[in-house]
Amino acid sequence: MSVSAPAPAARLPADRQPSAAALAERAERYAPLEWLSRPVWVFDIDGRCVHWANTPALGVWHADTLAELCGRDMGSDMSESVQQRLAQYQHDFLLHRDASFNEHWTLYPGGVPVSLNVRFSGHRLPDGRMSMLCEAATLGAVAPESLRSVEALLHTAVMITLYAQNGEPLYRNPAARAAVLAPGERLQERIANPAAYAALMRSLQQQGVATLTLALRTPGGERWHELSARRCNDAVTGQEAVLVSEADITAIKHTEERANYQSLHDGLTGLPNRAHFTQRFARAVEDARAQSMEAALLLIDLDQFKDVNDTLGHVAGDELLVATAQRLRQARHGTEVVARWGGDEFLVLITSPRIREDLDALHERISVALAAPLTVAGTQLRVTSSIGVALYPQDGDTIEMLLRNADLAMYAAKERGRNTMVYFDGSLAETVRSRTELEKELRLALEREEFEVYYQPRVDVATNTIRAVEALVRWNHPRLGLVPPAEFIPACESMGLIGVLGLRVLSQAARQQVAWAAQGRDLVVSVNLSPRQFASPGLLHDITGVLRQAGVNPARMELEITESILMGEDQHVLGVLRELSALGLTIALDDFGTGYSNLAYLQRFPIHTLKIDKTFIQAPDANRSLADLIVSLSTLMKLTAVAEGVETQEQLDWVAGRGIAQYQGYLYARPMPVGAFTEWLRSHP
Questions:
Q1: Distance of CA 316 to CAs 83, 143, 311, 375, 573, Å?
Q2: Which of 369, 385, 512, 540 could pair with 331 in a Cys bridge, judged by C-beta atoms 3.0 to 4.6 Å apart?
Q3: Per DSSP, what are the bridge partners of residue 265?
Q4: CA 504 → CA 331, 451, 495, 517, 527, distances in Å?
Q5: CA–CA distance, 403 with 388 (Å, rounded to integer)
Q6: pLDDT, tens digit (0-9, with 9 covering 90-100), for 143-186
Q7: Cα–Cα distance between 549 and 556 in angstroms, integer?
Q8: What's the first-to-final CA gap in the chain, in angstroms?
Q9: Number of C-beta neighbours around residue 12 at 10 A
Q10: How far is CA 412 from CA 172, 371, 440, in A?
Q11: What single-letter DSSP state applies at residue 34?
Q12: How far is Cα 178 from Cα 83, in angstroms, rounded to an integer?
């Protein structure tokens, strides 16, 4: 062990320098040791200094006087390994009064190496602290490589232990000594796992060497060590022994564990990912087959998740996904495996001897778990999901086949109004084929300009005169005829085509407004703006370009937005709406009452018109109380209320009785193509 004291030696602070009286008292106490010819000194372990030394020891330490040696600060540049070794000595001296150690040490007084064999034993100081009595003998000629190997053995972080054949420790270097729970810990106690110890000894007997990686109990807690052993002979007795070296690989092991975890789990939600789920699926279906059970794969897709991303932003979307993952975990009933497949899609694998019954119960738990209100980015949401189910083995015996069929069932759940669970059946494959064909034809329809704008009037309730016109897109399919928007708008949204289509509708409507104004019918034309369009960074640029190209007066154009848009980041949404208003456009809130907003919230935004959803207008009279509230508050806020979907005289009478300013619906006129509508205008005020 090396102890460094470069010249000039560091000095203890003045308040720790021993006084002349203290040195005299020490000289008197240790006077008998002064007669010894070998170097002897007392080392204060806590103080990191020499407490006393005889004259030969002063020579070893290159000290002129006892006062000068005792005043040196031995801890100022003491290495961590030396500090650790001294602490081990002190601990053993306190436990065992007769403990002693013989070791090779190299001192560096004045920077000159002095190699000694030193015997250390415990010694109590007058104040009761445990110090160390050091008795040294100089070495003869020692090869440099021997000195260096001893130094390396004492200073290395690798733990080296020599065990007797019965497992008792014969020698431990400082690193090994620091890693055991007790100084006398035997090899079989070190490796507490009987199977691991047996494997180690078997390998030593058969091959003479052995290596294993295992978790060991240490004073610092459980650590992972790579343990290597080989058979040898004890250099002192000549008897067979086992030399063991240990390297702490805990950091590497934890890194491997983290990497393995990350490779098998979703980084956002912590749920198993695709790779993990695939592994679990293989094991689960094996068990199901062996136990004659059925299995089911559930594909869960969050309803209208895209609206959250488009309006509240992706950070809010991630927050919603994390909350959903937690709720799905809580909905489990034991053996179900829950994973995130990607985006807003989750998978659940369930095995059961009564699969349909357990699936229905699981669906109920999932629905209840997701239905609880959730606040995301300051907005309260209610989450629903569409779930597709594929059964094993009847709907497929591979994960690929089951996923494909669960996906078909999930889309069927979407088409049936969302917030439901659908089991796969063969007819769904035809549905997918049709949807794929629809998407292909939609792209061609844009190229061939098959989309046409229809117009429906908005009428003043009191005077029955036309106040505005809504532009509604229709698809003139060459084979299917007129396709209503409910059948192609969702596909355009999912395919990312809605932006192009929306601008085309706005452009046609703006040009038509100019044409009608030239004919003496200066009507306000209202055009729908989808959430995806609203979220586009180029929205203002695109709209400004269309209006300028058409030469339309912006005050005669109105944009209809949905309530979901108002769920977005308040300042961003407010900023966009204000910029649209600054162009001269008016803003209408479409299908009001079906979303998340409220009238008090609307005061923040430049909204001019509220279009009350047709479900309120067409509801039985007893269920129209919310519509009454909407009308009352919109009047107070000086917003124009418009009733949508008026189809009967009774509905119109109710609308008139509530003081709603305008209405729109089949009772007055259906949507018409531009030619028919222009002709119709000639006979209507």
A1: 53, 71, 9, 10, 15
A2: 369
A3: 272
A4: 46, 9, 17, 20, 11
A5: 9
A6: 555 555 555 566 677 888 899 999 999 888 888 888 888 878 99
A7: 15
A8: 108
A9: 18
A10: 71, 21, 19
A11: G
A12: 11
**CA–CA distance, 645 with 30 (Å, rounded to integer):** 110
Rounded to whole angstroms, how far apart are CA atoms 383 and 369?
9
Dist CA 578 CA 571 (whole Å): 10
Can you give the pLDDT at residue 504?
A: 93
What are the distances in angstroms from CA 191 to CA 104, 194, 224, 232? 30, 7, 12, 19
| Crossing angle for the helix pair 539-550 and 570-582, to the nearest 10 degrees | 10
Half-sphere exposure of 437 (CA within 13 A, CB side): 9
pLDDT at residue 1, as a whole number: 44
For the chain, what is the radius of gyration of the CA atoms?
43
Identity (one letter) of the amino acid at 226?
Answer: E
Helix (H) or strand (E) holding 214, with range, is: strand 209-218
For residue 292, what is the DSSP state? T
What Cα–Cα distance (Å) separates residue 145 from each residue in 141, 151, 445? 12, 10, 86
Chain-centroid distance, C-alpha 561: 34
Q: What is the Cα–Cα distance from 57 to 61, expressed in whole angstroms? A: 6
Query: Measured at the alpha carbon of residue 296, what is the angle toward residues 426 and 336, in degrees to the nearest 5?
Result: 160
The answer to whether the bond into 183 is cis (omega within 30° of 0) is no
Rounded to 5, what percent of the chain is helix, strand, coil? Answer: 45, 25, 30
Q: What angle do the packed helices 674-681 and 498-518 form, to 10 degrees?
A: 30
Give the containing element (helix H, strand E) for 561.
strand 557-561
DSSP letters spanning 277-333: HHHHHHHHHHHHHHTT-EEEEEEEEETTHHHHHHHH-HHHHHHHHHHHHHHHHHH--
Tens of pLDDT along 631-661?
887 787 888 999 999 999 999 999 998 889 9
The amino acid occupying position 423 is Y
In this predicted model, what pLDDT tens digit does every residue of 464-474 receive, in sequence order?
A: 999 999 999 99
Among the listed residues 88, 184, 99, 90, the one whose alpha carbon sits nearest the alpha carbon of residue 131: 90
Q: Which helix (H) or strand (E) holds 682?
A: none
**172 three-class SS:** strand
Angle at 100 between CA 97 and CA 106, to 5 degrees: 140
pLDDT at 2 over 50: no
Confidence check: pLDDT of 213 > 80? yes
Give the sign of the dihedral formed by CA 652, CA 655, CA 661, CA 665.
Answer: negative
The order of strands in the sheet holding 169-172 is 169-172, 159-164, 240-248, 221-233, 209-218
485-494: long-range pairs with CB below 8 Å, 24+: 487/438, 488/438, 488/442, 491/435, 491/438, 491/439, 491/442, 492/442, 493/306, 493/530, 493/532
User: Tokens standing for 137?
Assistant: 């003998």
Instruction: Tell me what pLDDT residue 349 has.
Output: 92
Q: How does the average pLDDT of the chain come out, rounded?
A: 85
| Residue 612: alpha-carbon gap to chain centroid | 41
Q: Is the pLDDT of residue 523 over 80?
A: yes
pLDDT of residue 48: 93
- Structural contact between residues 266 and 363, judged by C-beta atoms closer than 8 angstroms: no
**Cβ pair 394, 288 in contact under 8 A:** no
Q: Minimum mean pLDDT among 349-353, 563-567, 634-638: which range?
A: 563-567
Going by their DSSP bridges, the two strands 221-233 and 337-342 should be labelled as unpaired
Residues in the chain: 685
Give this prediction's pTM. 0.46
Structure tokens at 286: 């094996």
